[in-house]
Design goal:
It contains ten helices and seven strands. By secondary structure, the protein is mainly alpha-helical. The chain has a domain of 227 residues. It has a three-stranded antiparallel sheet, with no helix packed on it. It has a two-stranded antiparallel ribbon with strand order 1-2. A two-stranded antiparallel ribbon has the order 5-6. The longest helix has 38 residues. The protein is globular.
């Protein structure tokens, strides 16, 4: 199907209608990420208020993890104390942390996401610094709770670092890799959180605060990268199910289901498509793929629960067991939510400024304008 404007004074080759995509597969709105960051910060503040500054919160912390204070006499009794301390010693090693941070930077370099890699490393270091300052500054009042103390360990630095490292990889990995790393990465965060509770280093609220702090900083970092990289494309803000008719002296290109308007001064107008079901089939396939991936995730989680739950129940008391299971569920939920928000974002921030019509690799094409329109251009 093609369209030719009768108002255009020059003869030119008819150009086909280009269907507009029903979704933007490589875009994420920075405002949505800022809202997610504010929501995470609000949840972090509520956790701090409830678990630190109310008698009921301190009592619940003590019920989930009796005598949960850092020190040799406060660790949980059982066979898991030794493995828990081994995990914490390994993850707390400067060499291991340096290797993980270097891996984030290397992946960013390999995918031409150097700025995202640097921002990810800064996010991890900043999260650890904020957690350390918070543990020093925040008070923990005395409410005469038998299983509580005035020693503040909110939020957990180990859990903050583990969550921030996982999310730093989300800034440099492609969308398909993020989805497959989310669940095993969240389980790794859960292992670190469980180890801190079993070893008596942190309470349940500390692990929750560490996850929320890392998620908040990740959303802010992702919003900044999305803004710098121009993830939102307001020039293409057309309704799904329409088609784009290009200006003969502008340029519209279709690349991997994306439409890029290469000349902001060109005129693009939307017209009804010839086949309204074009995007319906694509959306159904996307939904089906999402359901299959979700089903696989559920199968993996159920199998892991069936394998680990009997072993944990025999080695850990009921309170710590509930805390470990709850922390695992919340870590998976938090990581899965932010990965869903940035599921298709590229976070490609150019190191040097480029013209928006320079280079097809960056989603644009060069445009060639006809000199006959320099003296005056019709307006449609």
């Amino acid at each position: 199907m093609a369209d030719v404007s009768p108002e255009w004074p020059y003869s030119w080759i008819e150009r086909p209608l280009v269907p507009a995509p029903s979704r933007r597969p490589h875009s994420v709105h920075p405002g949505l990420l800022v809202e997610a960051a504010l929501g995470s910060l609000l949840a972090l503040a509520l956790s701090c208020v409830v678990f630190l500054w109310t008698p009921a919160g301190q009592w619940l912390d003590g019920l989930l993890l009796p005598r949960a204070e850092r020190g040799g006499g406060y660790e949980q009794q059982g066979d898991l104390v030794g493995p828990a301390k081994t995990v914490l010693a390994l993850f707390g090693s400067p060499v291991v942390l340096a290797v993980l941070l270097g891996s984030v930077l290397l992946v960013g370099l390999a995918r031409r996401r150097l700025v995202a890699g640097v921002v990810g490393i800064g996010m991890v270091l900043g999260a650890v610094a904020v957690a350390g300052v918070a543990k020093t500054v925040l008070p923990r009042p005395e409410f005469q709770i038998e299983s509580s103390t005035t020693h503040n360990s909110f939020p957990s630095g180990h859990v903050t670092a583990a969550t921030a490292l996982l999310l730093a990889f989300m800034l440099v990995l492609p969308g398909w890799a993020r989805r497959w790393l989310a669940v095993p990465g969240a389980l790794g965060v859960s292992v670190v959180a469980s180890a801190t509770m079993i070893a008596g280093w942190h309470r349940f609220s500390d692990t929750l605060g560490g996850v929320l702090l890392a998620v908040s900083l990740f959303c802010l970092a992702a919003a900044a990268l999305a803004h710098l990289g121009g993830e939102a494309h307001p020039a293409l803000d057309v309704d799904p199910g329409t088609a784009l008719w290009p200006d003969p002296y502008g340029a519209v290109r279709v690349d991997r289901s994306e439409v890029f308007h290469a000349n902001r001064r060109s005129t693009v107008r939307a017209v009804p498509p010839a086949d309204g079901d074009l995007h319906g089939r694509s959306d159904k396939w996307t939904a089906l793929r999402g359901l299959v991936e979700a089903a696989l995730v559920l199968v993996v989680l159920v199998c892991a629960l069936l394998l680990v739950a009997p072993w944990l129940s025999a080695s850990v008391e009921r309170g710590p067991l509930v805390a470990i299971v709850t922390a695992t569920a919340l870590a998976v939920l938090a990581v899965g939510s932010v990965v869903f928000l940035v599921r298709s974002a590229e976070f490609a921030v150019p190191v040097t400024r480029r013209n928006h019509t320079d280079g097809a690799r960056h989603g644009t094409v060069r445009t060639a304008r006809d000199p006959r329109v320099d003296a005056g251009r019709p307006t449609w």
